[in-house]
Specification:
The chain is built from no helices and eleven strands. With about 120 residues, it is mostly beta strands.
Length: about 120
């Protein structure tokens, strides 16, 4: 079993940057693909980015491609989401999740964190 805890959210002006972190417990972290999802007020949760267990493959939603970067450090059981050029429409609760296989579908992820709020002001 894997437990994940996100951190790094906050309030930032449009055009600014934030780096989210997700620390996972469990010795099997390095065997899991990891993903970031987000949920804006009144909207369904959506895929943001995913990274394979080896970090050899990454995937991004079109809305964040070129602005966000997902990475991981298996020695630290941590996955990151570097967010640059933030826009007000990026405002959401951001969730980290673990999956046995790299995936963009929410249903593929078995373990979820509680989320961290990101607010981008205009």
């Amino acid at each position: 079993q894997v437990q994940v805890v996100e951190s790094g959210g906050g309030l930032v002006q449009a055009g600014g940057s934030l780096k989210l972190s997700c620390v996972a417990s469990g010795r099997t972290f390095s065997t899991y693909a990891m993903g970031w999802f987000r949920q804006a007020p009144g909207k369904e949760r959506e895929f943001v980015a995913a990274i394979s267990w080896s970090a050899g493959n990454t995937y991004y939603a079109d809305s964040v491609k070129g602005r966000f970067t997902i990475s991981r450090d298996n020695a630290k059981n941590t996955v990151y989401l570097q967010m640059n050029s933030l826009k007000p429409e990026d405002t959401a609760v951001y969730y980290c999740a673990a999956s046995p296989r790299t995936a963009i579908r929410e249903a593929r992820y078995d373990y979820w964190g509680q989320g961290t709020q990101v607010t981008v002001s205009s």
